Amino acid sequence: MVSRRTFLSLVAGSMAASRLASAQQPAQKVALYANVGPELTHYDVDVAGAELIKRETVTLTGGIQYAWPHKSRRYLYVASSNAAPGYVREPQTDHFLTALAIDPKTGALTKHGDPIRLPQRPIHLSTDIPSENILVAFPNPSAVRVYRINKDGTPGEEVKQPGPIEAGIYAHQIRTTPDNKLAILVTRGNEGTP
To answer: What is the reported pTM?
Structure first.
């Protein structure tokens, strides 16, 4: 049986792959990325033959939490943690944001630069509309942090905020609006208490 995490990873990978494939000619390959734990595997998609062909696997530090493509489709940003449910390893202090380069011809992934250490387990990430910053949501304690994207596509310094951010209870997803003026943080809703 496929777990919820595996299913959502496949869905996220197929969404990223569909965008990568949207501008490609029919004769070109379509890439799909799926993860189990710390392993992110690249598959070629044979649409005509309805087949997935397993290619290479990149192993990251800790269980993969989420991945998001750069606007250029040349990089994939991946959040990972060894404190993820189902992947708890001691000590639970390894949380990273890693850039992977995407080969434009094959879709193959390779590590791009050094990963940056995150302060706690991330649950979601996305870039702003021009892919100048990476927004990372953390569930417990609920928080948001923003990291610059360097000119070479690697994750850079944290962008200090002018004041504290009220991140609600259990941040779950963060996205920017299409005009890039606002970031929207989705948090878990808990039942009211009497």
So the answer is: 0.82
